[in-house]
Amino acid sequence: MTGVDIEDVRAAAEQFDDGIVERTPVDRSRSLGEMADAEVFLKMEHLQRTGSFKTRGASNKMASLRVADSVVERVVAASAGNHAQGVALAASAANLDATIVMPQDAPQAKIDATREYGAEVVLHGRDFRTAMDHAESLAEADRTEFVHAYDDPDIVAGQATVGLEILEDVSEVDTVIVPIGGGGLIGGVGVALKALRPDVRLVGVQAESAATVPRSLEKGEPHTEDEVDTIADGIATGGIASLTLDLIDSHVDEVVTVSDGTIARGIILLMERAKQVVEGAGAAAVAPLVTDAIDVSGETVVPVLSGGNIDVSMLQTVLTHELTERNRLLQLRVLIDDQPGVLEEISGVASDHSANIRTVHHYRANADLDVGEAYITFEMETSGTEHAETIKRTIRDRGYEITQVN
Fold it and tell me: Strand locations in 208-299, DSSP E?
């Protein structure tokens, strides 16, 4: 099997009857639709059993090993987390041992989940590329099969079943938006869409700091980035394969890039408006709707929420960033004459305006200060920009010089 066609995709869908791969729902988002002036239906792949679409490809791969009557006893994979869980679950169901190599800084939630699905986890290297090199060396052992995250036709055919379900559930779809890491998901979805509905526009999304596809398309060969840094760890592969590049080149209409800030906003919007918790890679699909990176006015649009395995510490980071962006979390540095009662006065302003002070720091040792001066830095919670501006104006009216730190 050297390529992927619609019959491969249909065959993958037919063998998903073992309770491992679930048919995920689509749900209309009126809030996102109003923002984009479109009908928006979210494909909920984050509700897959392992929290991402990766289970589809891994399950199809294990099925291919069974059909081949293989002597394989163990599978090895490299992953930042989602492919790891998919392979671990599918291997366990197929009675195969699994070893997963993950970067040392992989989210702890994904490490724990992979172990819970029965796999041995090896932490190696600081990025996906290093982890994959080590996994490939482990796969040289007898009766061992390396399961690539995206450079495998069986994996791609399994991921492609997402496209079949979209067409069945949203028959009037005009545009499908898919995040891109290694390209297995969008390449597979493209096979399904263009075979059955070639008029449907397929848009891929990459994080700006991990945008290997535009350069690869320009060069005509896979481009690799040695270092990628994005909150969307699920699409931080640092490269694509010849297989997926060919599929993207043949089936994808447009590829856009989005910032981490926009991805963070997408995470929060999905929590607030759609009541869905997704990771950065999953939120990447709604980011173009948030920024108007593509025009979908009047269309029916399906963003694929590819994963929901967000680490709690990352969620805290995203929440803090978004609260700061909205002026819901306000940090003010106030220059004062270091006299008794000043702290009480400024704190009283916050109290009078119903702002909650979270922290206070008092600095006297600063080269910018004259004798007898000090800085007080307040971190406080407000209801938003208007509330924050009122507090700042009131403190200035009391005669204090203030600087917003964040």
Answer: 254-258
Q: Left if phi > 0, otherwise alpha if psi is -120 to 50, otherwise beta: which for 112?
A: alpha
What DSSP string describes 251-264?
A: H--EEEEE-HHHHH
The whole-number pLDDT of residue 1 equals: 44
Distance separating alpha carbons of residues 403 and 146, to the nearest angstrom: 56
Which residues make Cβ contacts (< 8 Å) with residue 88, sequence separation at least 6? 50, 98, 100, 114, 115, 117, 118, 119
Three-state secondary-structure class, residue 399: coil
What is the C-alpha to C-alpha distance for residues 94 and 226, in angstroms, rounded to an integer? 35
What residues does 331 pair with on adjacent strands? 379
Give pLDDT, residue 19: 80
Helix (H) or strand (E) holding 319: helix 312-325
Residue type at position 64: S
Q: Which residue has the tokens 């929901």?
A: 308
Lookup: tokens for 204? 């891929």
The pLDDT value recorded for residue 126 is: 85
Report the chain (406 residues): mean pLDDT per 10 consecutive residues: 86 87 96 96 96 96 79 90 93 94 87 94 88 93 94 97 98 98 97 98 96 94 89 89 96 97 96 96 96 95 96 92 93 94 93 95 89 94 96 96 93
Q: Which amino acid is at 339?
A: Q
- CA angle, corner 330, sides to 324 and 331, nearest 5? 115
Element spanning 335, H or E: strand 329-337
Give the integer Cα–Cα distance in Å for 168 and 43.
Answer: 12
Residues 6+ apart with CB under 8 A from 32: 40, 42, 269, 273, 274, 286, 289
Q: Which residues pair with 332 in a beta bridge?
A: 378, 404
Confidence at residue 68, expressed as pLDDT on a 0 to 100 scale:
61
Tokens describing residue 160: 């492609």
Burial 282-317 (b: 16+ CB within 10 A, else e): bbbbbbbbbeebbebeebbbbbbbbbbbbbeebbee
Q: Can you name the residues that pair with 205 across neighbouring β-strands? A: 179, 256
